[in-house]
Amino acid sequence: MAEHDFQNAISKIKVPMLILDQKWHRLFALGGKPEDVKELEAKESELLKRDAELKKELKDLKKVKESLMSSVMENMDSTSDLISKKLDDDKRLLEECKERIAAAEEEQKDLPEETDRVNRDLMMATMDYCYDKLRTNSTEAEEITNWIKDIRVQLKKNVIRKHNREINNKEIYSYMHDVFGMEVLNLFDMQNGDFYIGIANDKVDDATAKSKTDDEVADLSNVNLEDVDLDAVSKETKDSEETEADLEASEVSDIPESE
């Protein structure tokens, strides 16, 4: 939309008094109000306060005016010097009261337009802040989303790698048992015990261990990888994974099967 058309459309909108709306204040609950918003808020608050003061002042002045007019009317025909002096004072006060009423009404007449102008400026400053915040939040959310996708890919790959290492350990240990026998293996276990078969701290039987390992892999392998560029990830790690697979295959194939 062209700037001229935008400003023309905005000028026709009736803007609510923002500082009186609690939801408007909530817009700044997290980041706080910027300085330009604070300044406009203070100015609008002063205008509303002044308008309330003028309304009260006019109400009081009009009561005084009625009282003075009533006093003047009652004492118009009196010939007493004392009353005549009071009549003159009342007339003087009545004129002063009328002048003050006129001045207050003149000031009050301009307040709605000035208040509306400041309120519109406050709306524009608020919109600038909010849309800037929306753009910033969107950018950061996208960055976090990409980070989560990458972590999910890395998690799934590492779960598979971990599972492969555990399987390889079980195969090696099983072949060692078949080749050398339990008695020899027990001696070497006491000498070289810094390893584990399967899941760390897993002291249960092989069937239970395998079940737990498979459950763990199945659970973590269900990570949602929609919209993730798996081709790019696969290309990035292809060489290292092929090397690892070749090494694992050679380690197993080089161990002769027991008869």
Name the features.
single chain, 259 residues, mainly alpha, 2 domains, 7 helices, rod-shaped, disordered C terminus
Can you describe what's shown?
This protein is mostly helical and 259 residues long. It has two domains: 31-143; 147-253, no CATH class. The chain is built from seven helices and no strands. Helix 3 (35-75) packs antiparallel against helix 4 (81-180). The longest helix has 100 residues, at 81-180. 7% of the residues are buried. Mean pLDDT is 78; it is low at 200-210, 216-237 and 250-259.
User: Helical proportion?
Assistant: over 70%
Number of domains: 2
Counting H and I runs of at least 4 residues, what is the number of helices? 7
What share of residues are in beta strands?
A: under 5%
Distance between the termini: 83 Å
Sequence of secondary-structure elements: HHHHHHH
Q: So what's the overall shape?
A: rod-shaped
Number of strands: 0
Structural class: mainly alpha
The Rg value, from CA coordinates, equals: 43 Å
Global mean pLDDT: 78
Residue runs with pLDDT of under 50 for 5 or more positions: 200-210, 216-237, 250-259
Biggest β-sheet strands, sense, barrel: none
